[in-house]
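Hey,
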Amino acid sequence: MTTKLVLIAALTATSTCLGQANSLSYYLSAAEKNNPSLTEYANLLEIGRYENQLITAENSSFQVDVSSEVMVAPYFNNDGKFIDVTDQPSANAYGYAEPISNGALYSAQLNIYKAIFNRAQVADLLFQNRVRNQAVHLSEAEVRHQLFKTVTSSYILVYQLQKKQEINTELVKDLGNRLQVAQILVKKGILQQSDYLLLQLEIDNRKLELQQIGNALKDAKLNLNNAAGLHSGQAGALPPPEIPFDPTVVPAFTTTDQVPMAEVSRALKDSMANRPPPEMEPANTLYTDSLPYQYERKFVNDSLQLLAEQQVFENTYKPQVTLYGNTGLNAVELDRMYHNLGFSAGVKLSVPIYDGGQKRIRQLQKEIQYRNLESRRDNQAVVLQNTLQSLLEQIESLGTSLDLVKAQLQKQEQLLELYKGKMVQGQVSIIDYLKLVENYKMLLDTQLQMEVNRWFLKNEYNATNW
């Protein structure tokens, strides 16, 4: 949990972002602001908040509509008339029975409906929507987390190539100084012309390598800018990446007893009883914030989704009471239509009796789904612990190796200075000097690669440990 809080605080610090235009926090903040997927999730959450209003409007508010109908059921061969619309047909007429059709219907009504005694059902629907919104929150957090990991990896790669460019530029500069000295020594007859040409060839090879590094650096900067949603520009040199790292947080996996899904989920739901209604909570509220790891947060939310679905389904088995009323015109005779203005009202009660055992079948299905969630959660806990432990061991091993390489570099630098002095006196051949330079460069590259690998491992650890 500590790692997550430190990481989030470091990555979203706006003041740091504004203060260092090329820092890692700047690119992370830009990526969070410009990423289209995060914008889509924000819009989905806004839609979810409107869904609360929709649920209330559909289930707690009066429903009013206007209906109008004109229906004609004529009779044939009625008192010598081929076709006639009447509510008093003769015995020889052909048509629908008069008590059924009354010959015609002229209707224009205002209808009002309202479900009553359904507060519990509405509360379950709102709870279900809250859980759905929570799932969107979790997906948004996961996208943001992976985005930070991607941007950090891109930043590390840019810094690595930038550092390699600096190392090779410095090496070419130093070799150029040695070339000037070699030219003087050739004129004095201390070195041969072939030594001078060999040194010049080495400089050309380094310049070619510098050009290749420069091309790779351009591509890496392009990828970093694309990941952060920034326009490509002539940005300055990047500072070393500052990656927060807390190796003390490692989850301890413990097995869980088999508890019925409904019991666990209802306990989780009861713990939310004192929370404000969804419309009163901030848009970014997560009721799983107290859980340290993403797999736990997803498990809780998925469990609550199963519970919410089951409760909404079971609400269809409760008595449904609806008030209704209408007023307007409802007539069967045109000439007496004004006498048929009126109203009616009533109460409708619907009580389910038997459904063939569907309710129990649905409960069994949810129990199986819950067991699947438990199995996935337990497996993810084991994988998480093993992965974090492995990453910690690799980081520690790299730190030890890096200390050894730094010690070797100090000796190589001292030896290189000695060779420079001896080369001026003609006591060391150019070939021996170039071998030493090559070994020194290899050690610099090894040191840089180890530092980069350790940054990558820390980034992976932070991305995993949440």
